[in-house]
């Protein structure tokens, strides 16, 4: 059931192929005053389309106060509700009440609105523990509430108790319970991405994981809803000796094919492999695979060589629109810079949208 993203596929990535244009200074401005924004996901309607209300598209973003070292924003992350319309982005505040989740902060996930037009299910990562414990512990939860959009504003309300969906088994998936990074990275068990299979109606979540037997190998995990709970499945994708972190995995279905997308950073590739920070993907004829790399290599859209850190966290909607956030424009590696220098360079705003073109196993942008 598990498909491999291989060294041969990555080694075939051309140095000048599938690179996004360099962002101009005009695209780098505050979206929400006082906040850094990064990982994002749209609210899907019951058919999987991006939710539109009052002429606006509805999204969740991770947000943190715009202060200090931007690399520490993950320690203050909250999920915010935003909308996008003709006037750009609007912030509607935190999606969840203070202290509503077991974590010390909220990390990425996905969201779906029920056919009644009100009931909202949020799938998200609870990072850490609000009572203490490992700083980088990661657990997957779902919560049910309501989305209200009116002349008085928009808000998420009426949340029930968070329900833990699945736990890492230590066999297919390593337990992400570190208190400090190791080798500049952390283990993964996060980013639940919901998908309903149109072929049979089964519901799944995908997630970022680390292989249980080889922690240096990134995997894209899966679980299937069975009754009131979820059943853990083997990984859909594994990248042994290729890449340690396949983040924000999600599937869109187009023309009978299942396109599985994820983001990764160039520094997460194994020794001997050189590939850009970018949006990657594989395609299958069934949701559970087997999967093969799109474009033969897996690369869909990479940061340009002259701005290798300019954007991250690409998220593809059912309409083929791609969102991301502006990370560090310029050429210098931000991980070698001082906190002050990082703050001066960090974008922390939504990047311009772009669209994908689908032609069988080929996925291009333009």
TrEMBL record:
Coiled coil: none annotated. GO terms for biological process: carbohydrate utilization. The record marks 191 as: Transition state stabilizer. SUPFAM superfamilies: Arabinanase/levansucrase/invertase (SSF75005). Substrate binds at residues 38, 108, 190-191. Keywords: Hydrolase. The keyword Iron does not apply. Transmembrane segments: none annotated. GO terms for molecular function: hydrolase activity; levansucrase activity. CDD domains: GH68 (cd08997). Pfam families: Glyco_hydro_68 (PF02435). The keyword Calcium does not apply. Belongs to the glycosyl hydrolase 68 family. This is Glycoside hydrolase family 68 protein. It comes from Sphingomonas populi.
């Amino acid at each position: 059931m598990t498909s491999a993203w291989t060294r041969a596929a990555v080694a075939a990535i051309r140095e000048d192929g599938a690179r996004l244009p360099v962002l101009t200074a005009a695209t780098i401005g505050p979206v929400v005053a006082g906040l850094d924004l990064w990982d994002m996901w749209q609210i899907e309607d019951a058919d999987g389309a991006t939710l539109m209300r009052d002429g606006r598209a509805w999204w969740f973003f991770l947000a943190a106060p715009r202060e200090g070292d931007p690399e520490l924003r993950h320690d203050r992350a909250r999920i915010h509700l935003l909308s996008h319309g003709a006037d750009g982005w609007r912030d509607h505040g935190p999606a969840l009440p203070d202290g509503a989740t077991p974590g010390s902060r909220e990390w990425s996930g996905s969201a779906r609105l029920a056919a009644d037009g009100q009931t909202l299910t949020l799938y998200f990562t609870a990072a850490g523990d609000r009572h203490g414990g490992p700083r980088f512990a990661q657990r997957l939860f779902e919560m049910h509430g309501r989305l209200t959009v009116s002349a008085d504003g928009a808000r998420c309300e009426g949340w029930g108790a968070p329900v833990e969906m699945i736990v890492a088994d230590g066999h297919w998936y390593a337990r992400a319970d570190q208190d400090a990074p190791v080798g500049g990275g952390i283990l993964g068990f996060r980013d639940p991405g919901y998908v309903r299979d149109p072929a049979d109606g089964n519901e799944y979540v995908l997630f970022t994981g680390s292989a249980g037997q080889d922690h240096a190998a990134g995997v894209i995990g899966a679980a299937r809803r069975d009754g009131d709970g979820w059943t853990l499945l083997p990984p859909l994708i594994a990248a042994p000796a290729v890449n340690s972190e396949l983040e924000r995995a999600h599937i869109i279905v187009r023309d009978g094919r299942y396109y599985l997308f994820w983001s990764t950073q160039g520094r997460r590739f194994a020794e001997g492999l050189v590939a850009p920070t970018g949006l990657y993907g594989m395609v299958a004829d069934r949701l559970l695979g087997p999967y093969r790399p799109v474009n033969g290599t897996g690369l869909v859209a990479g940061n340009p060589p002259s701005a290798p850190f300019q954007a991250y966290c690409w998220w593809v909607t059912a309409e083929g629109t791609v969102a991301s956030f502006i990370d560090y424009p310029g050429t210098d590696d931000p991980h070698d810079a001082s906190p002050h220098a990082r703050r001066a360079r960090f974008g922390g705003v939504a990047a311009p949208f772009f669209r994908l073109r689908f032609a069988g196993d080929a996925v291009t942008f333009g």
